Amino acid sequence: MRHPILVTLCLTGAALISGCDDKGDEAVERALQDVNAVDETDLSDVMLTVADPNEAVSYFRRTLGQHPDRIDLQRGLGVSLVRARRYTEAVPAWQKVVKHKEATDADYVDLADAQIRAGQWKEAEKTLDSIAPTHETFKRYRLEAMIADSNKEWNKSDSYYETAVGLTTRPAGVMNNWGYSKLTRGDYADAERLFGDAIRQDRSLFTAKNNMVLARGAQRKYTLPVIPMDQTERAQLLHTLALSAIKQGDTETGKALLREAIETHPQHFEAAVRSLRALEQS
């Protein structure tokens, strides 16, 4: 009589052990999936920041082949294509993102950004118009300002730039863009002021320094502004100022500035030498 009971107990014990093994396997599998998810997130972050942009494109395309519906990977591909300056490819990548059920207004802003970079200004304007007015971000208003500039809607442009400046803690770049907008309109004094504001925010922004010199040259102010600059930058800015003077018809002033640029540069300044030689031969 004991044998059936013993058999029953053994079978029950075996089933329990088997059940424990199954649950253990499931727990291990879940743990591994969690670790893989963390590793994958970290790798995606690396690809979006410090990795070579083209390597990042390859990574996200390869990973999307395994998980085609994941919007984070689709976004990663779009960002990487923009970083790699592959704007023609970036546009359809972002168009795919905005069709995803989890797409946000920020994704539409990124699509508009890619469209502007690809030269698709009209399409970018339509994309921005489709975004809810309650989505108020620095990037959205910066792009709105650029669209307004392209349409020569100066009042709108100024309003958008002003709003964008108030929505970021690093306004130097947008101040430089705003100044360039003023420069293209012929509002040289205001442009010079905005470039000065940009330089105060970011002393390393050489583009703003160069633009400031262009604004001064357009006003026939042929002296360098009092701004931070090293010796090489000083030579380059003198060269820009010289070309501006020549463009205004002040050729002798331009020659003098070119000579000063050549003497100032710590190395051989080929561009300035070539410009001066061309002027003297003509």
From TrEMBL:
Pfam families: TPR_19 (PF14559), TPR_6 (PF13174). It comes from the Bacteria. SUPFAM superfamilies: TPR-like (SSF48452). Coiled coil: none annotated. This is Tetratricopeptide repeat-containing protein. It comes from Shimia gijangensis.
